[in-house]
Design a protein that fits this description.
- Helix 10 packs parallel to helix 18 and helix 17 crosses helix 18.
- The longest helix is centred in the C-terminal third of the chain and has 28 residues.
- Helices cover 25% and strands 27% of the residues.
- By secondary structure, the chain is α+β, with helices and mostly antiparallel strands.
- A hairpin with a 2-residue loop joins strand 1 and strand 2.
- It is built from 19 helices and 36 strands.
Length: 773
């Protein structure tokens, strides 16, 4: 098989990254609109549904190797402090304790994620790590952790991002300012001053979005075991190969001495890339003690140190002509990263979503004495969509123009960030039309609809909308192997991970379709670096679009080899026979000559295999997902309570491999967006720099009683330039416009523009005190 090394480009937010890709063989042709598919595109229950429903699925938390020890962390109660002394003697002498790790005996153990010691002298936020106790039970470890004596020297701290930009204290003593290096950064096109000079209407808006906590049901962490030859870690992660690399680096091992496993994960939403400090510490303790160790964060630890959606302060100035044509967009965004070290893409919607020749975006990322933020399902773009869409509704009101008409008028046919590079496909106008009709947009101002109890009643209803853009085309490298067994069944091996999206199911559908086997004849094995071929992290809506084509190619190679074997056994040309539903037919006559298994079992145990990989991305085009959501809400003007009645979502994510798993993604994203819009917020006491609701009692998330009617409109059509499936990712798109659509619906209901989320009853009552627009 010929090997080629080709160069491909990966693009995000107007930045292009060059990557070399190794290709063996040829990818199969794209499944276009005319592809006759019998399994792909059909709703299929999850192939692992029984394990998940019965509780037999084994998560990192469930692993119980013989002799398992349990680790518990001691964490800083201070927002910023220095450790002047730590006494672990009493803890080490406590019953059941096998080790106490701290800067006294593990000062040189570095976190490769943050390039700093795991046990530092300077503590930078409440929840920063002080020590870890390893004992025979959790209760013994927790008791011993309470016996550690620490001398803290409190240091000046800052938790408010705007204060951090002033003359106040720095969040870390080794820094001279609280902004990231090389920031603020400015993106600019056109002439902003000229754009505002041409504007006949200009509006300003300050929009604040909160810090939202991931609150995955399974917390971060892992269970690790060292047998003297291999360090195995069962990790709650979105990136098993990243875990292997990080653990090997941290422990000074070769990568072939580390095995990372993740068969099931109880949620991550972007926060679980790599091993996290808890997984690294489990591995380190197991390596040192020669006994298996489990370290899974407590709920409070999870909400202090495992990440969150970074809060933003966005200041917009938007100008337009009387007919609604945008002439200028200006955005300055301040993001509170805590101890995070990168800037999320808050400005992406302002730069690309709507046609505008004159744009300036200034990014100001700020570090404060809070835990590090982490990617959270379309990080930055969710917040930026909220700010931009709220600002556009203000502009529509100033223009006395329908908000949907304003967006249609400023539809961007090509990628303004890439000098007018065409989009591979854009069905946003179709999405607008279908979703608007479904929600009854034209009748949103009907008297009976707006005032269900009459104008003197206490209920008001409103309908709002918001647009969405995101990537989702994936890319290389991703590899897979498909094996045909002697009985005609198949096993597909790849190293990806299922983070709850139904990855096993859609990959099985793809393989079964290409192999011409029944779905039940295909098993997909994932989540193990020891046996699976390399796959990228699961994030950025890239898993299906990256790994799916590799699985399809592997299945196609295995099918070709199988047909050659059958051709030899039947003494017929390979192109004269075909497979259908696991049976072998002669093409010309349609006669069935046996099952695939009946031929393969003649090979005395020989297995047929095929190898597949993800090919390069298309050049000269930008691949995006686009969509829209409309929301209808009801507001009680007496109490300020908001109830979402209905959401209509229409997203173009290319070919839909499984409508059931696609709908699950849509519903999950919308529900998370609802939480962001109405209730989710981390509350920080500015006096002490401490988080007041690092739990699931005081941190409010949606429950079943909050879920509205959700209508999903499928735009099921392949994007043939994206990959051989024509499929794009659906993980991030549904959350991106959800909160913005709800915010604009509330603004419509109460006649006041929204300026901050979440829209708690108190905040809505405050808005109602302002003059109506």
């Amino acid at each position: 098989m010929s090997i080629r090394i080709v160069t491909t480009e990966l693009e995000f937010e107007g930045r292009t990254y060059t990557q070399r890709v190794v290709i063996e063989g040829e990818e199969p042709p794209v499944w276009g609109d005319d592809a006759e598919l019998s399994i792909v595109g059909k709703p299929q229950p999850r192939v692992d549904a029984q394990e998940r429903a019965t509780g037999s699925a084994r998560y990192a938390y469930d692993m119980q190797p013989a002799g398992l020890l349990v680790a518990v962390g001691l964490r800083s109660p201070c927002a910023h402090a220095r450790i002047n002394g730590i006494d672990t003697a009493e803890a080490e002498a406590s019953p059941g304790v096998r080790a106490v790790l701290s800067r006294n005996n593990a000062a040189d153990f570095n976190d490769p994620n943050r390039d700093r010691p795991l046990f530092g002298e300077e503590l930078l936020f409440e929840g920063d790590l002080v020590a870890v106790v390893v004992a025979e039970s959790r209760e013994q470890a927790e008791d011993a952790a309470g016996r550690i004596r620490v001398e803290y020297e409190p240091l000046p701290f800052v938790v408010d991002p705007e204060s951090a930009l002033g003359t106040g204290p720095v969040a870390a003593s080794n820094r001279s300012s609280n902004t990231l290096e090389n920031y603020p950064q400015t993106y600019e096109r056109g002439n902003l001053d000229q754009g505002f000079a041409e504007a006949e209407v200009t509006v300003t808006a300050r929009v604040e979005t909160p810090a939202c906590l991931h609150n995955s049901m399974e917390t971060h962490g892992g269970t690790a075991e060292w047998d003297g030859r291999t360090l195995t870690i069962w990790s709650s992660t979105q990136d098993i190969f990243g875990v292997r690399r990080q653990v090997a680096t941290a422990l000074g091992l070769r990568q072939n001495q580390v095995r990372a496993v993740k068969q099931y994960m109880g949620g991550g939403f972007g926060s679980k890339f790599g091993a996290h400090e808890s997984g690294l510490l489990a591995a380190y303790a197991a390596f040192r003690l020669g006994a298996p160790v489990k370290y899974m964060l407590s709920r409070e630890e999870e909400n202090l140190c495992a990440g969150y959606r970074s809060p933003s302060i966005q200041e917009y100035r938007v100008g337009a002509r009387r007919d609604g044509t945008l002439t200028a967009i200006e955005l300055r965004t301040v993001d509170n990263l805590g101890q995070g070290a990168w800037m999320p893409s808050v400005g992406m919607p302002a730069k690309e979503m709507y046609r505008c020749p004159n744009v300036r975006v200034v990014d100001v990322p700020v570090q404060t004495n809070l835990g590090p933020f982490a990617a959270f399902r379309a990080p930055g773009v969710v917040e930026g969509t909220i700010g931009l869409e709220v600002a556009l509704d203000r502009l529509a009101a100033a223009l006395k123009m329908d908000p949907l008409a304003l967006r249609r008028h400023n539809y961007a046919p090509d990628n303004q960030l890439m000098n007018g590079q065409p989009y591979a496909r854009k069905l946003l106008l179709d999405a607008y039309s279908q979703a608007a009709e479904a929600i009854g947009w034209e009748g949103r101002d009907d008297e009976a609809r707006r005032f269900p109890l009459g104008r003197e009643g206490h209920l008001r209803r409103g309908v709002g909308m918001a647009s969405q853009l995101w990537g989702g085309d994936g890319g290389p490298p991703a590899q897979a192997t498909a094996k045909l067994l002697p009985d005609g069944t198949a096993v597909v091996l790849t190293g990806t991970q299922d983070i709850g999206t139904g990855t096993r199911t859609v990959l099985a559908q793809i393989a079964a379709e290409e192999l011409n086997l029944p779905l039940e004849a295909v098993r997909v094995e994932i989540g193990d670096t020891e046996f699976g071929m390399y796959s990228p992290p699961s994030g950025g809506s890239m898993t299906l679009a990256s790994v799916g084509p590799a699985v399809r190619m592997a299945a196609a190679e295995a099918r070709k080899a199988a047909l050659e074997v059958v051709a030899h056994l039947t003494e017929a040309p390979a192109d004269a026979i075909e497979l259908r539903d696991g049976k072998v037919f002669l093409r010309e006559t349609g006669k069935e000559v046996g099952t695939l298994g009946s031929f393969l079992e003649q090979l005395d145990g020989h297995e047929i295999s095929g190898k597949g990989m993800r090919g390069p991305n298309a050049s000269g085009v930008t691949v995006r997902t686009f969509g829209v959501q409309f929301a209808e809400v009801e507001v009680d003007v007496g109490t300020g309570a908001v109830r979402v009645l209905r959401v209509v979502a229409c997203h173009d994510c290319g070919r839909i491999v499984n409508p059931l798993t696609f709908s699950s993604q849509m519903e999950g994203g919308i529900i998370q967006g609802l939480g962001l819009a109405l209730m989710e917020q981390r509350i920080v006491d500015d006096r002490f720099g401490t988080v007041m609701n690092a739990n699931l009692e005081d941190y409010k998330i949606p429950t079943i009683r909050d879920i509205p009617r959700i209508d999903i409109i499928l735009l099921d059509s392949p994007v043939t330039q994206a990959n051989t499936l024509g499929a794009l990712g659906a993980g991030e798109p549904p959350i991106i416009p959800a909160a913005a659509a709800i915010a604009n619906a509330v603004g419509h209901a109460i006649g006041r523009p929204v300026s901050a989320l979440p829209l708690t009853p108190e905040r809505v009552l405050d808005l109602l005190k302002e003059p109506a627009r």
